[in-house]
Amino acid sequence: MRHQLDAPILAHRRLAEYEYEVVLHAPAVAAEARAGQFLEVLYDHSLSPYTRRPFSVFKVDRQAGTVTIVYLARGAFTQGMARQRVGETLSIVGPLGNHFVASDAPGVRHVLVAGGVGAPPMYLLAWEMVQAGEDAGRLVVIDGARSRELLVAVREFQELGVGLRLVTDDGSAGRRGVVTDLLREALDEGGPAQVYSCGPTAMLRAVSELCAERAVPCLVSVETMMPCGLGVCMGCAVKIRDASHPDGYQVLRGCHEGPIFRGEDVLWD
């Protein structure tokens, strides 16, 4: 069930040069939000900004009734958000979209692949698994970004005790390379695996293709425009394979039927 409310800002912290974390008091949302779902956010009720923007849920505290999001203040909208202060409110709608469902196959290793601000839903998924009794040692998290300052949720992953592997394009943190370099190595370690991923579209495509080659199940959270988040505007249309359809695919809404899809089902062209 989605909720619309003006959520008070309880904390607003700058974590890195562009990275900010916002803690909102939204008990109804916190009670229901799951990994992979998102909030549509508006910080100003004037016509500037004109539309809401989607932000993945990063943390939930159901007892305290709080929900946390992370963002990079690099565009006009997010720079405006960065000016909001504790005690002010953000207008939010959520939780929206479907959510990740962890595999319950016996002996499966869970491999979570995050790119930049794709890390928040991966952290929440890892947290949910650990809370449900999953051995943190069976969780492999590959956290990647262009450089050290753009990595997200490193401290939180470390505190969970998962097998964290960092990779950056420039080698400023962890390995130098891309997430698929480390994913290939993780899959080479053998045994059944389930992959979950969130990040830029090019990264998701590469992760999905590698998993398809290895016949490894893969769930991805697509990154697409979501002006309304309610399945009305069709700005988030995604082509999903469907052999029963005359065109071989159907068009689904990233904000409504998604954002989580099987990687092998997404047409990335």
Key terms:
269 residues; single chain; Rossmann fold; alpha/beta; seven-stranded mixed beta sheet; Elongation Factor Tu (Ef-tu), domain 3; 3 domains; seven-stranded antiparallel beta sheet
Commentary on this structure:
- The protein is of the alpha/beta class and 269 residues long.
- It folds into three domains: 94 residues, Translation factors (Elongation Factor Tu (Ef-tu), domain 3); 122 residues, Rossmann fold (3-Layer(aba) Sandwich); 45 residues.
- The protein is 21% helix and 34% strand.
- The protein has a seven-stranded antiparallel sheet. The protein has a seven-stranded mixed sheet with strand order 11-10-9-8-12-13-16, sandwiched between helices.
- A hairpin with a 4-residue loop joins strand 1 and strand 2.
- The longest helix has 14 residues.
- It is globular and about 50 Å long.
